[in-house]
Amino acid sequence: MKTLFKNYLLEKAPFTLTEIQTLLNAATLVHYNKGDIIFAQNSYFNYNAFVCSGLVATTALYNSQNYTVGFAPEQHWLGDRQSLLTGTPMHYAATALEDTTLLLLPEDTFEQLRVTIPLFNDLMFTLIQNSLLQAQQRIQNNAILSDAERYATFCTEKPGLAARVPLLLLASYLKMKPETLTALQQTTHGIRPLNSVQQRASA
Hints:
The chain is α+β, with helices and mostly antiparallel strands. The protein has 8 helices and 8 strands, in the order H-H-E-E-E-E-E-E-H-E-E-H-H-H-H-H. It has a 4-stranded antiparallel sheet. The chain is globular and about 50 Å long. The model is unreliable at 189-203 (pLDDT under 50).
């Protein structure tokens, strides 16, 4: 599984073998079965996690209702930067939707690596910037796009993911009723998705 992380790094930037080995030596692999809770809302998760395999959903409970925050499939990062930076509890929970293997980097080690390996720091900066752009784009999509356009955009930006995510979680993420999503999944032809923000790295 660490080979997957190595390949990911080499795709993103020209890391040296020594730099890659330093990153790999600092990381730990942890396996979660489908349905396992990786971390709970209002708890602490002092790691930056890279998804080597599987799929994770992040959800938040608010006013007795559960909301889907996002999804982290293979080659995506998982964690709550606000919680790590401020020392406050996690704002959401994470659950494995499939058997999942995470590569974990403790936060203190992660920050040290950003100092000692400039390319790694550059990569993380790019990923954080892209994450902010994606969040802004999602807010815009929720405000101006129809249900059909939001679903088409999701399918275009995240190919194949809709088929792996439970209906209720996906409907919550897309801000639509489950029955609306079911109908859209059956009839999606002729819908033009909104162009996604071009990104050099994905998170």
